[in-house]
Amino acid sequence: MNNAARFTRVDRLEIEEADWDFIHSVNLKAVFICCQAAAKIMLAGEGGHFVNIGSLGPLKPCAHHAHYGASKAGVVMPTKSPAKAWAPKAVNGVAPGVIPFERTDRRIEKLIQATPAGRAGTGEEIAEATLLFMKATQSITWQTIAVEGGLSLR
After folding, report:
1. What is the homologous superfamily of the domain 17-153 according to CATH?
2. Dihedral Cα 74, 143, 145, 42, nearest 10 deg
């Protein structure tokens, strides 16, 4: 399981190279490097599943998070291309919705209210989706489950 993320809010006309690099160094580069390191170990052995934690960024763009959305959209290919390259090993993804781990602010509360499920998700729900892939047949590959209570429908 590969989960790494940074998140900042910057107007897309004010994003500077340092802002871009700050987000992409973890959200995209680290995902690639971790997958590569895990693959060297897992491909030499018998079993294993790869699960990358992405986000709704590629599914539901946000005006003030262009660099974040681009980084998370970039996680789609490091999930899909290894599924082809490393078959029959399974490579899948989980795209969480609103999962507040700290206190919420007005913006988070608005997202929760916009979620058709009427509540935020939990870390346990992300773990359940990840575990689903870990226990699944290797024939389930190249898939991403959105665990977001219907938020991407809005």
Report:
1. NAD(P)-binding Rossmann-like Domain (3.40.50.720)
2. -80
Q: What is the rounded distance in angstroms from the CA atom of residue 132 to the CA atom of residue 84?
A: 20
- Confidence bin at 20 (pLDDT 50/70/90): very high
pTM: 0.87
**What are the boundaries of each domain within the chain?**
17-153
Q: Tell me if 141 sits within 8 A of 90, measured CB to CB.
A: yes
Q: Find, among 154, 152, 6, the residue nearest to 75 by Cα.
A: 6
- Distance of alpha carbon 92 from the chain centroid: 10
- Yes or no: say if 114 and 61 are a contact pair by the CB < 8 Å rule: no
Tell me which residues are annotated as active site.
Answer: 68
